[in-house]
């Protein structure tokens, strides 16, 4: 090997080492951010799909919590509704101030195309998969809760206490933020989210889930056939969850 080759090789090694030291010098948060946002897309997630849901509020009965119960069971949630308890899906009542008409509907992470939670996360723990599912990586979540403040749907929870009896497919952890995942563990097996399955099993038929990009999917056909709305459409988030009848 020539002297010039040795010199060039040494120069490259020096620059690599310098870059690493610079990253550490900038602070662990900055370096962590760089690593988080350079991760490869999740295996199996494809931008050819965008998962979404249509909820018909006219079929969603007041007092019915079948979807909430199914979510809690599938994801290992306690089912408690206190301010420090995790709720990935909750029933809310909305009232038309002009007519006084009240409707009940399930509210969860809306899986936005432009999610504010992802924009404000300092570590990249809040992320959107290529197929539109918004998730939290608990391994790099530092519990700052910026995403909770940014979410206009109040769809995220913080784990305050140690957890036991978890579903191995749904890892959770104290000190982390979490929210509805569309039951990604089921979706990746070509199954329906637990809430949708429960709603259909009970013959309510209020929830349709599928690929929004597939014109032949049931959800795409329903969205084309019926009027639907986004909650807080004024924010331009292009939510993956739409509602009919409100």
CATH class placement of the largest domain: Alpha Beta
N-to-C order of helices and strands: HHEHEEHEEHEEHHEHE
Helix-strand category: alpha+beta
In the residues, how many domains can be counted?
2
Widest sheet, order of strands:
8-1-9
Question: What is the alpha-carbon Rg in Å?
Answer: 22 Å
Poorly predicted tracts of residues = 7-12, 14-41
- Stated plainly, the CATH topology of the largest domain is called Alpha-Beta Plaits
Largest β sheet strand count, sense and barrel closure: 3 strands, mixed
- What's the number of helices? 8
Beta content: 15-25%
Helix content: 25-40%
Name the overall outline.
globular
Q: Quote the average pLDDT.
A: 85
Count of extended strands: 9
**What's the N-to-C terminus distance?**
74 Å
